[in-house]
Every structure is written in C-alpha cells, then in structure tokens.
Fold:
Amino acid sequence: MWISLNIISKMVSLDGISPEDIAQRLTMSSAEIECLEYANRHFTTIITAKILDVKPHPNADKLTLVDLSTGSENHRVVCGAPNHKKGDIVPLAMPGTEFSKDFIIKKSKIRGEESSGMLCSEKELGLSDDHSGILIFPEGTPAGKSLAEIFPDSVDVRLEIDNKSITHRPDLWSHMGFAREIAALYGRPFTDVIDRSLESGFKNAESLKVEIMNPEAAPRYSGLVVKNIKIGDSPDWLKAAVTSIGMRPINNIVDITNYVMAEVGEPMHAFDRKKLTGDRIIVRLARQGEPIMTLDGQTFTLTSEDIVIADNDKPIALAGVMGGGNSEIDDSTTEIVLEAATFNPVNIRKTAQRFNQRTEAAMRFEKSLSPELTAAALIRCYDLIKKCIPGAVAVSKILDAYPVKQKTVKIKTDTEFIKKRIGQKISDERITGILKALDFRIEIKGTDLELEVPHYRATKDISIPEDIVEEVGRIYGFDNIAESAPMVPCTPPRRNEFRLFERKVKGILSMHFNMIETSGYSFVGEDFLNRLGINEDRELRLANPLSMEQDRLRRSLVPNAVKSIMVNMRNSDYFKTYEMGRIYIKDDRKSKELTGENTRVCGLVYSRQPDAPLFYEAKEIVCGLIEMISMDDIVMVPESKELPPYAHPGRSMLIKTGGKDAGIISEFHPKTLKSFDIQGRSAFFDIDLNMLFDAEKTDKKFCELQKYPDVPFELSILADRYVHTADIISHVIKTSPEYIKSAEVISIYEGAQIPEGKKSVSIKTVYRASDRTLSPEEIAGLQKKLIESMNRKGFTLR
Amino acid sequence: MENKLEEIKKQTVDAVRSAKTADELEDLRVRVLGRKGSLTIILRSLGDLPPETRGTIGKKSNEIKKIIEETLESRLNELNETSLDGLVTSEWIDVTLSSPGATGTAKTGRLHPISQIQYEIEDIFTSMGFEILDGPEAETEYYNFEALNIPKHHPARDMQDTFWTEDGNLLRTHTSPIQVRGMEKMKPPLRIVGPGRVFRYESTDASHENTFYQVEGMMIDRDISVSHLIYVMKELLRRIFKRDVKIRLRPGYFPFVEPGFELDMNCLICGGTGCSVCKQSGWVEVLPCGLVHPAVLRYGNIDPSQWSGFAFGLGLNRLIMMKYGINDIRHFLSGDERFLVQF
Structure:
C-alpha cells in the first residue's frame, strides 16, 4: 500500500522532518516501510522561462537555438521541437535536473552549439502523453517559477507499506491512521479532516431507506443520497493524489470514493440512484446460486455465505468486494447513493477468496474495520464532492442501519505490569503520555490504569493488557530497551536421546566413512516411482501440489538417493552421499489424526568404473556403523527374492533387528540404473533409524587381555560356488568355539585347477586358550577335529 | 706373538676404518672378536704361554681388544650417520603427491551446512539450559494455526501459504507447533528449542523455497520480559557469528506473540551500507520473536497470570546464506556435492 506524504501533511504537520526520518520512525514503531519514493522531485529545477529569441541552428535543419530568460538569468538551449516561438513561457530543465538515474540534464554541445538545459514536453514532464511539442504555459504565467510551485500537488513523497506488517491494524490501512502514528511519534497535534458541521446541511428529502437483514453479517450500513452530480474529470490535485497512492484516475466520483478509502480507511461505493428499483437498500446474505455481475463485467454465482447489497428486486453489489454492474455510475449519472458500511470480516474474506477478488475494499474489511467510520467517511465524501461539483447537494440525512453498536473496549492494567513485561524502568508519566498520544482515554489510580481504547483500534487489535505493553513499547522504542539475562535456576536440560543418536550416526557416516550428507525434498512424483518400480499409490498426497513431480510425500529416501547420483555423476566419477530424513506413512498412524513419520538413513556409493563390487563398500559402512553404535541385536542375511524392485537380486542383504526388517544393503538393479540413464554402478543402504535407536545396545565391558599365545592354522577347502562364506566360517567356529579366537576367509580362488562350479576358500583359524598355552597335542587334536568336520560337511581339503 | 697381535690390530683397525656398511663391520667383529675370532683364540690360548710372557701378552691382547672394540663402535656410529644422511636420496619420495603416483586426495566427508548450523545452535541453547524437542512435519491444523492463535479465516493465514494433505492435515509452515506440543508435555518453567524442516506452498526461485529449516525457541518462567528476549537473541547471534552483531528490534505482527517483533541484523554482506541481499536497507530480517500471547499459553495449559515467556523462530537457510554469502536458496536441497563440500 502506498502512503502519500502530501495527504498525510493535511492531518499532521511534517515541517522540519525529513521523509527518510519518517520512514525510519514508522519502521521502528508502526509498520515496515518497504521503500520511499520521491515523485517529481526534479520539478524544483525545472523553471518557467520566457523565450527571447529563436534562431536556426547553423549545422542542423530541424534544430533551433533558443534564448530564454528566467527573469534573473539568460540561457541558450538547442531545441528540436517545432511549436515554440518568441514570447512563449516554457519549462526549462536546468543543468543537473534528474529525470531518472540515467537521464540527467547537463551542459553540452549539440552539433557544435552550446546548450545549457532542455525545454520539456508534457510527456517528458509526466503530465500527459502529449509529445507533439514543448509545453507552452498560458499567457501571464510568470517566468522564474519552478514547476514545483506551478504543480504543487504533483510533487510528493510516497512510502510503500509492507501490507503484512499491518495485518492486525485496520486503522493503518489509511492515511489517517499513519497521520495519527506520526503525530504520536513526533508529539505533534493531529488534525481531523472530517468537517462534521456539514451534516447539519443535509436535507431530508429522500424516501430511500436502508435495512440490514443479517446483523451478524453486516454490523452497520450507512448511505447518503446526493443530487446534481456531474460526472467529469477530477481536478488536478485529486488526480495527482490518486496517482500518488497507486491508483488510476477514472472520474470525479470514483476518484473521490477511492481517495476517501485511502484517506479515512473506509471503503466507499457510489450507486446510480436512478438504476435502483424501489426505495429500499437491503443488506442480506445471498441466496444459494444467486448470480451477480460486478462492475468489471464478471459474473459470479453466490453462496449463502456471501453478503449482497440489494434493492427491491436484485443484488446491486457484492458486499465488501465490488459494486454491481447494474447500478454502476456512468457519464449520465446525476444522482448517487454513497455507501459506507461494515461487514463481517470472515464473510468478506471467504467471498474474496472464493471468487479470487482480493480488492482494496476486501483487504480492508477482512481486517475488522470499526463501524464508527461510516458516517465520517460519508461526510468527507460529500465535502470533496462539493469541492469538485459545487452544485451537488445532499438530499438525505445519513441513512443509517446500525443494529448493534460497537462495544467500547476498556482495559484494566497497571504501570508495574507494563514495566515488568518490557523489562525496563519507564516513568509512569512517560507511559501515560504515550497512551494519551495514541488517543486512549485514561483513568489513573496510583499505578492502576483504566483505559478506553479508541474505536478505530477496538475491533480486534487491542483488547488485553499485553496489547498495551506493545503500544507503550513500540512508541518508547523497543530498540531503546537494554538487554538483561534472565535469572533462572541453572538446571541442566533433559537430553533428547533420539536427536543425539541422529547426530551420532551422521557423525559416523560423515567423519568416519567420509560420506557427504545431502538433503532432498520430502516430495516425490509418479514418474520417479514408476521408474523405480515402486508406484503402489500408497503415498500421502498433497491436496494442492505445486507440480506433478512433487505431488505426494515420500515413503522412501531412495528416490532422493537416485537424484543425488544423477546430479553428481555429471561432475564426479566416485562419491559417497547419504541423507537422513523423515518418511511419511499414511497407513501407519501413531495417533488418530497424524500420518506416521519415521526417520531413515539412506546412503550410497557411486563409481563410474568400480574395481570391485561396490556392495562391499556399502556393507563396510553399515558394519562399521553398527559396531560404533554398539548394536547387539542385529543380523544381516543374504536375500535374493523378497527385495524392492530396484535392488540387485544377486547383491543384497537384509538388516534385521528383533526379527524385523530394519533395512537393506544392496546395489541398484541394472535395469533401475538404465531407467535413470545412470552410467557406472552404485550400491546403497537404506535403514530405519528409529529401529536402530530402539534396538538393544551392548554395554561396554572390559575383557582381560589375552596372556597365552595364538596358534594360527590355515587350510584351503573346495566349496560350491554359491555357498556363502559366512556359513563356512560359522561351521568352522562351531567345531571348537571355546578355543577359536577368530576364523577368517583370507582368499577365494576360482579358475585353473579348480573344478567348474567350485571355489577354493582359504581360511585362517586362530586357536588359543584363556588359561594356558595350548600343548602340541591339543593343537593337533583341534586341527584334526576341524579337518574331519569340514570333510563331513563335504568341504574337501586342497 | 706380540707381532701377531700388532698385525691383528693394524689389519682390523684399517679394515674397520675402510668398512662401508654395518654388515661389513659385523663380519669383521665376528672374524676378530667372535667365538672363533683371531683375537679370541689368542686370548683363550694365554694359558698355554710361559708364565713370564703370559702377563705382557695378556695385557697387550686386552688393550688391543679394547682398541678394536672402540674403533668398531665409532666406525659404526659414523656409518649410521652417513647412511641417515643418505636416506635423503635412497628413500626419497615425492611428498607433494597424495598417494604413490597420484595427486588426487581422498574426499573427506561433510555434514550438510544446515546440520552444521543446527547442531551449533542446539549446543548454544543446550548450554543455556534449553531442551531440544521434535514435532511432526505433517501437522494438524490445530497445532500449526489454531493453538497459535490463528483461527480459520484469520488474515494472518495469508502470511503462510500452506501445503494441505489429502487427509485434511498440512505440512507445518513453521516450527511453532513444537511450542504448543512442548507446553502440553512439560510444566512451566520451561526452556525449549525445536529445530526442523518446514514447508510453504510457494514456487521456488533464488530466494524462495518450498522447503526450508527453522529453529523454534520458547522460554517460560516468572516475569520474562522483552529485555530477556533481547539478551538471549543477541547472545545467540554473537555466538553464531563469533562477533558482536548489531541488531534492531521493531514491531512485527505474529498472532502468537504480543508484543511481536522482527529482529533485524546488520547486513554482514555489505556491513550495513546497503546491498542487494539487504535490499539496500543495511538490515536483514533474521528472527521473528515476541512475548508469548496469553491465549497461546492458555492453549498450552499454562496460566498467563502466573507465567510469561518469549518465543522466537530462526530461519536457518537465511542465516547460512548470510554467513557464507550464498546467493541462491535452492542450493540447499540440490544434493550437489560441489555445493556441499564447501562448508
């Protein structure tokens, strides 16, 4: 919203205050000023000058040399316009005049002739679109005047207000509101522009009545009938003012209603009296399905929540949003009904949203306007109409339906409370002074205050003592409050164990296994799920997605892992990334209203040309992680059937804890890689972090260091190619668990000298006893037992 | 015999002095002083000598033995030193390589910049006695709006464009629901922070994201004031930016606080003189905050006549962008390693 300082200055003197200072003070105490703009600041260096002589330019046919006098000085400029002659009074832009950042008038030579300024057309001055020649002032216009003096209304400073910052302040949707703020901030008097004496001149010669059918939808409806209207252009001051606040001048009546809305904050409307049927204006809820055509030509089908203004037989306006096309004023209008009303903010907001019509009026009504504004706005409107159309006459009293009067809001508080909440010693006089400046009526009893809130702030904005704290604080200046540390007991906070666990896992992956943590969107789309082969339509969908690619919530982090490969393989041949984040499972509700959320961690290793299967790298990370978080109850089992479709059936293991699946280690299925155009290979793990967190952890316990020597023993056996070495090892250990410290596969060989379909596995077993050195006989016995057992299992020795 | 001893001495000493390696010295030692060494044999056979010569020869032999031993040792020391010097050439490697034959270094792992700042902030608040809480990302309308004093059809809902889910819930638009859940769970006095991911129904560009991160904070105690809020916020920013930062507090409207503020920080990119990041104002909004609205306390079953508090919400993305001069918010969720390894 734009605020014009010209309009403000009619209500509070701005003498001696810079616009920058006003913007700063308002930002710090009232509302955020987004920008400050000077309108026609350059008019101060454009001066009226009399043409003394016009000569042809010696080097150019279409240019002339013009000698001018501003009364005190003479100037020569080169000019290309065709219409000026000796004796004319014209606007001369002096050197230094800044039309825009890139267009500053300088002394220069044009085709060899000195030119010290520029003569301006109406278009160049922004006065009209006329660019046919230089603006020539009427005869008798004195020379030596600046354009700022000639067009005082065009020179303005305007402030753009951040609308969000005044969501709670219906009064600040007006110049009056800002003028009051400035008056309070600078301690200057506020002048009301409403001339209430006019009301006594309103004739009572009109049979029109106004009536509210649903008081909860419209607390007040006021009207005024004015005759002898002549629709025409607005005077220059009004055009300039309307332009300054960001609106387009239309005609005198529309401009006046717009101006009053901006000035007083009360949205106004004017009906053509002759287009109304009957003598009644009714405010009522619309009938379901009732149509209305608004003055912009659109037709809406209404619901019973919308409010309409109607005459005897038809709706004539969509209340609070826009007037109707059927009652609109036009060039032949001579008699109008001015409307000022207050509507239920919720109805207006719903209507504006439903029809996507967030008009200036709707924006104000939804903020809860004070009903007390309507009569004042009508009087102000009439005042301005009289100024523009002197023959206009009010032929009705203010027609007023005001079934439920606005309640007076009174707040009891005390200065001690205000000081305590602010946390600073402010004198009682300062506090009451601020509140008085803000138009509160105060009764003081010691430190107790009984406050009456001004009507324009009493609709919703101010109702509790905390609101008073804000009023005092913001005018005092929150920036003037000193910091102080709260004095509270130094009890240590409870630990959030799950957060700490997340952090530990991330630390292990990033710091120990050198993985890079990524973070991806919580959304996923159908195409991605299809390509992964997991589109089962089980995701929680968004009711208002931004795009097809992000129309539902992820049930898995794997899509993001694939994205990470696609992004990074362009720049890197090898990388390890992981993401930890929530997934959303709509069929697993933890409470009745909420979708289940689980935290998972999904990591991947990618290599364009891996030397060895990447599965092992992924597995090493998972095993390291499990060891470092001291997990007890965990098993990893090879799996080739019960796998997600993107997992490689020959290179997958499931991670289980408490007998339940907690995750998977796998390589991406070659067909998955192909469907995403991924060159190279990638292995991944995808683990339920909540299950890891809940799983049994081993308590660390000291174990006596081994005192007696190790006895290593190596043997090679032949095994079937598809036998898992883990099974062989567990078989080895089973032969003498109490003496075997470790059994490891140290090499596997397939090829020459090994029968087809077999592999040679070399195993190193280390024997030891905890209480003695094993004797040669014992060792021989253990080794013999192992060999025999292997043979029995069909693993022949090589 | 004496000549023979002299000869052994001379030969051995010469040989020792010209020896080039420790192995050579060891050979010499064995040949002369070993079990079957030439001098050892003489020393062993002393008993066979006539008593008149036995004394002199014996003495002489021991002297020579001592000389040879000393010479061996000093030569060994010499040799050791020269061979250490020799390591410069014999065991030289190109230390500017990163591995044999290659300069490429192994990549080091990273936490996402959001995690880094989040943990830093969690630690700062933990040190001030704040407990860390979580909350669901897919929230109910009640916790995201109503219990925060934003009823249905309140114009303040416009400030936060919302993703709605098919089951009538929403993706939380701020971390503030954690406040309400915290108050329900705990009794005052309380100090909590809740970091997390939030969502806005918004098309993305360099300065807008539909997914970003916030840290919510709340302190409730007897007589908490604006002055306390300023202290905690300043302390937080001082610790994050590791210097005294200039802030300003101005009114800001959020229905769940009263009074409510926007806390601006002096723009670190331009130092307050005005640049594109701060829209030429010299200030950047970093922290909406305020004293908890009594209605919100009541929603959290806390009696506002007994307790008061402050609350704030800190946008992490903006903070990191400020700290490192990042110009595009979309980098955070891009998954691009080239971005992530910079922090």
